[in-house]
Amino acid sequence: MYSYQPTTDGGASWTSVLGVTSYAFTSADATTAAAVTDAPTTGQKLVITDIVASSDTAMFLLFHEESTAGNLFFKVFIPANGTVQITPRGKVKLTTVNKKLMVDASAAGNIAITVLYYSEI
Fold first, then answer.
1. CA 73 → CA 30, 64, 70, distances in Å?
2. CA distance 61 to 29
């Protein structure tokens, strides 16, 4: 005789924050660096858990840390009228405290980016 144990998924052990002031980032031209998150809790770093980006224009997006374009975290290519999803299987933590996640687009075009993240030391 087998004994079955009920299984449950209690979900993530953190509380995620959505986008910029709880909204997706949208722009008609993000060729200049733009914040796609709020700043983390003071003295902490952002941990990125999910990104969904879509555009009506073919382009690539560079996701990097605020004021540090050299700290590139993701580069994704989006076809015209396309969507990409980034869901890392591990932590993607920004390297500097108090910094936002930024995006630079390779071309002007309508984009929408939703980032889910949380803060930790």
1. 17, 5, 9
2. 12
